[in-house]
Design a protein that fits this description.
- This protein has no helices and 12 strands.
- The strands form 4 sheets. A 4-stranded mixed β-sheet has the order 5-12-11-8, with no helix packed on it.
- The protein is mainly beta.
Length: about 130
Amino acid sequence: MMERLAGPTAGSLLALVTLAGCGGSNEGGLVVSGPPVAQVVVTPLTRNILEGETAQLTATVFAADGSEIVSASIVWSTSNAEIAEVSSSGLVTGVSAGAAQITALARSGGAEAEAGALVTIEARPDS
């Protein structure tokens, strides 16, 4: 049975996962101890920037009881590095005009969840 959990706000993308286990594990070389991840919320959900500009995305991770998990491991990725790059802290840099999905994968307590944001890069106007 799935139920809505406290924590996310309107305008954010929510991902729910079925918990496969409890306790810590070592997945991909990352220590993921702590409460199991139930959801991750990325804000802002959409962002428009110019080529060469940056925008900070934030991932907030929640346990099943709605409490925030500040110790969760978060890995950021981009659907297209030729359009937008993303750092390990969620800082997005516009590379060229287009759109890219930026995803945050959160791990804690042997569970993981992911959520993303759509970033649109606009060409700089001619100077």
